Amino acid sequence: MKKLMILGASVLQIPAILQAKKMGIYVIAVDMNPNAEGFSYADKKIVVSTTDIDGVLEEARNNNIDGIMTIASDRPMMTVAKVCEELGLVGIDMKTAINATNKSKMRDALRNTDVAIPMYFSVENYKDFLEASKKIMDKGYKCIVKPSDNSGSRGIRLVNDSDNLEEVYSYCKENSIAGTLVVEEYMEGEEVSVESISHDGDCEVIQITDKITTGAPYFVEMGHTQPSMLSDETKDEIKKLTQKATKAIGITDGPSHTEIKVTKDGPKIVEIGARLGGDNITTHLVPLSTGVNMVEAAIKIALGEEISLKKTLNMASAIRYKDCKQGKIIAINGVDEAKKVKNIKEIKIVHGPGEISSEIRNSNDRICYAISQADTTTEAIKSCEEALEKIVVEIEE
Hints:
It holds the Pfam family ATP-grasp_4. Residues 107-303 form the ATP-grasp domain. Keywords: ATP-binding, Ligase, Nucleotide-binding. By secondary structure, the chain is α+β, with helices and mostly antiparallel strands. It is 32% helix and 28% strand. The chain has four domains: 3-89, Rossmann fold; 119-185, 2-Layer Sandwich (Dna Ligase, domain 1); 188-303, 2-Layer Sandwich (D-amino Acid Aminotransferase, Chain A, domain 1); 319-396, Glycinamide Ribonucleotide Synthetase, Chain A, domain 4, CATH 3.90.600. The protein has helices at residues 14-22, 53-62, 77-87, 94-101, 103-111, 126-138, 165-174, 232-249, 281-290, 294-302, 335-339, 377-390, and strands at 3-7, 26-30, 44-46, 67-69, 120-123, 143-147, 157-159, 181-185, 190-199, 202-213, 221-226, 254-263, 266-273, 316-321, 327-333, 344-349, 356-357, 368-374, 392-395. Strands 13-12-9-10-11-14-18-16 form an eight-stranded antiparallel sheet, sandwiched between helices. Helix 2 packs across helix 3 (77-87), helix 3 (77-87) packs antiparallel against helix 4 and helix 4 packs across helix 5. The radius of gyration is 21 Å and the shape is globular.
């Protein structure tokens, strides 16, 4: 029986743990939280931080693993890469991990291979931040600021003329681990993500996902829909850009999640993750719309096995998150009614009674969501919206 180490045992990694178990694989889950929900599904639990490279490497050696992976999280990618390099496993190398998790290094790698990206600057202090912001705004662009080393929409701010720049700088800096910020042109246009699998250097695009966000100032994703409703010509441009970008940062074997803005000058890269996409995109939406099990494919690649990416469905799928009033949650009603809505596949309550509904500043602030599958994208979206309307979140006055 092959042994697979999965970094992370939160609800985000449970689909990978369950899929591996279904495939008859011995699963070793790693998480710093001893009460992580995914531990109950794994064969063995190891309580170590997924960013503790030396600690995870030691456990990987001791357990004689055949493969290592993570899904829906960028933070363990450096650990995955180091273990793959040291133990000769299939996966990304350290250079690729750095390119895929550090927005500054990612931009540099893409620029050096002529991949379409926005105007950008990497800054480490307030003086350089002011200069970079001015250069971008002098070109007539809005300016967006991001920590170079965080994900999940954490620490992202759009700079407006009326903003207190010192406050924007402080907010973004607080959310950066190393302290480096990326100041870049805010790209106007439709936003999509691209779900891909690379094998032996060939990148195959499985699906293109339309997405909606909260918009300024935090840009938290509030919905995804497959397949994209963009024109075939634009989707072809997006596929070619994705394949070029994936090669540029060094992904040869494994999944990738690429975010793209379709600007007036054509598609441009927002960022790339050398992992399966989060937000239930690759675990739920992709199989519902295409029939392709990307989690299974990623597991097989990590174990050095051959994969099949044949599409067996031509359906539409969607997810929508509910925006709620702020305050302490007293009760959540209407869940059973929401589950009965046509085309609904799943209703999930993330934060329940006794917890706080706060302003949506990052993906962890969202209260609940609905997932649907339908014949058309319009129907899939409508079903999600109808289901969420039936859910009433009572807030303490």
